[in-house]
Amino acid sequence: MTDEALNDLTEFHWMMDMLQTVDVGLVVLNREFEVNLWNGFMESHSGLLPSQVRGKSLFSLFSEVNEVWFRNKARPVFELKNRAFIIWEQRPYLLKFPNYRPITGTEDFMYQNITLSPLISTTGKVDNICMMIYDVTDVAVGKKMLESTQVILSELNEKAAETPSGV
């Protein structure tokens, strides 16, 4: 094996290790929405091994996913080669994973931001898309706490304005 081939193989090994250990869910779905790739994040949070999900429909694995809605969301990714986004403010989660910090966390499930990206083949077609799932639970909890605090402060300010001075 040449030094260049060995370097390429080493780099490929590193990239595969990064895909498995990155703190982002990575799922590759084909046009039938069957799972082709399932990384370590997904295994850890779903409790499902890659061998249990490979070749199976996302909709059969996760009944909480609205199939019609998700297919419509993914259509421009396949057809127009554009990315699509799902943010937690619009839909708190796509896949209902439990919050993995039950003692310090205040939420029962993981809030998620999701990016759907086209995977363009060597022929220029998009036969697969990559779904990247980001855990944004801390951000969501912080924003919800801030909004709750703002409501309380607003109510206190209203009460203070209604109270006659000198009382």
Task: Give a description of the structure.
There is one protein chain. This protein has 167 residues and is α+β, with helices and mostly antiparallel strands. It has one domain (3-137): PAS domain (Beta-Lactamase, 2-Layer Sandwich), CATH 3.30.450.20. Helices cover 44% and strands 19% of the residues. It is built from six helices and five strands, in the order αββααααβββα. It has helices spanning 3-21, 40-46, 50-53, 58-61, 67-80, 137-162, and strands at 25-30, 35-38, 84-86, 112-120, 126-135. A five-stranded antiparallel β-sheet has the order 2-1-5-4-3. Strand 1 and strand 2 form a beta hairpin. The longest helix has 26 residues, at 137-162. The radius of gyration is 22 Å and the shape is elongated. The N and C termini lie far apart (88 Å). The model has no long low-confidence stretch (mean pLDDT 89). This is PAS fold domain-containing protein. Pfam families: PAS. Residues 18-64 form the PAS fold domain.
CATH architecture: 2-Layer Sandwich
Q: Report the major sheet.
A: 5 strands, antiparallel
| Poorly predicted ranges | none
CATH homologous superfamily title: PAS domain
